[in-house]
Fold each of these.
Amino acid sequence: MLSLWLRLCKLKLDKHLQGMHLLTATVYRLIQITDPHIRADSEATLMGFETRKGLDLVVAKISEDTTSPNAIVVTGDIAHDYSDSSYRTVAEAVLAFDCPVHWCPGNHDDKATMAVVAKDLKLGGDQIQLGNWVIQLLDSAVPGKVFGTFADTELAKARDLIASHPDTHLMFGFHHQPVQQGSRWLDELMIKNGKAFMDIVRDQPQVKGLFWGHVHQEEDQIQDGLRLLSTPSTCVQFAPKSDGFALDRTMPGYRWFDLYDDGHFETGVVRIDGIEMNVDFDGDGY
Ligand SMILES: [Fe+2]
Ligand SMILES: [Fe+2]
């Protein structure tokens, strides 16, 4: 009788512990910042806006919201002047979080200088493993061009990752947009072979989402079950759905992701506040 009672107690305890396990599911916090467009001169401006100030304010905002992110990604247009010191400025700003930092190039980047600084400052490579998640960064930048293209090697990387990780939750990040976003001038500067890439990632249940920069604006849409996310720059913003170049009055910001063990994720954009956007709204490009 006593042993039956003990067994019942153990059964109850096991159920309780299982419930506790569900309540304490692991969540990984990933932060994306993008398009800081930093110059070596700390007071340099882009369209009238001090880009260094934007980066510093966004980093301060992240530290208000998240004490210890699990990883940070910077999705291109990092150094507007391609200088070694600009890359160091951006990397050191986010290395202050004491977590792995990863980056991929945009059209305003020099891949060789990025590689030197990444090695020197021990940045992570193009793949981020967080529990049962893999976040793969891809290179969409074409030297000397503003638009993007995925080289065959990058398309193969995506294809191979999906084939070799049937039970892993996957996400891809890069600089240029792979789909049109309804802004004529920006749509001309998208990834030229974006459709080939979308054909690879579409209808693959383990691929949960894609995120990028370049368009300096927030978007969050679902296509064929895939979450497609663009993220504001840490400096100036582009007006959505505009035929020609136009700036927007929205503030700089960043994107956070909470990645759950079961493969679902939550995400959102946070913007800085409390500053005047000193931007040259009449400018026609940069
Ligand atoms: Fe940019
Ligand atoms: Fe760009």
Amino acid sequence: MNLPPRPLLVLLAAGLLAGCNQVPVTGRRAMSLVDDKEVTKMSVAMFDDMKRRQRPSRDKDRIAQLQRVGERIAKVVFWDMPDADWEFVVFDNPQINAFAMAGGKVGVYSGLFKVAKTDDQVAAVIAHEIAHVTAKHVHEKLSQQLAVDTVGTVGMIGLGASGAPAISTVMLGNAYGLGTGIGALAFDRKKELEADYIGLMYMARAGYDPQAAVQVMEALETETAGAPAQAAWFSTHPSHPERVLRLLDAMPKAQQERAQSAAARGPNIVK
Ligand SMILES: [Zn+2]
């Protein structure tokens, strides 16, 4: 019997395994060829490695602030990441940057506090980063890449132990935007806008003022003298004005979510 060429076989195997992720909040369905558990395991190992290699901050106030804000956001995303083992780390690094990884690993560079000072503003950044994780943007990015590589390149892709296409640490690091280039785009325009929207709803549900998301964008623009794309946390696509306009569009809905969650929590909640 004539076997189809290897890339096709892999694609067929991957197709059988291909799952569909449903993005929380927006409900969008996205292809997934990668093994969820494998991505989490590798992400946790990558975060541990970063903790070993990078200098932790000693700023007690900022460490406490990130913990306080992170825990509140983690609560509202519980059902989107029920197995997360949350960890919030401030790294001593002047870059304006923050990231979140599968498994509930969140890193913030001390430079970020130049543009996110209040709890609401820090919540805006953290919620955006966590939205990338709950939306499984890294899984989607890897899957798109695997689909292209599998069709285009003979024998490049192997299968991992789970039967899903094997992914390397380098691929995963690049998908997170943790590669060499500072300011390298982590995600495309659509995914950034989606994370902005989902993050806005998350922060509002956690009781934070969603207007702070706009304040962070504006502070970033001021800090980087009108070239926010130079900051690692910021991406050049979509443009700054487009992100702000989309946030403002979603603001009434976010305020509604905030009011509803406050009502659900009852009057005795301590802010
Ligand atoms: Zn983003």
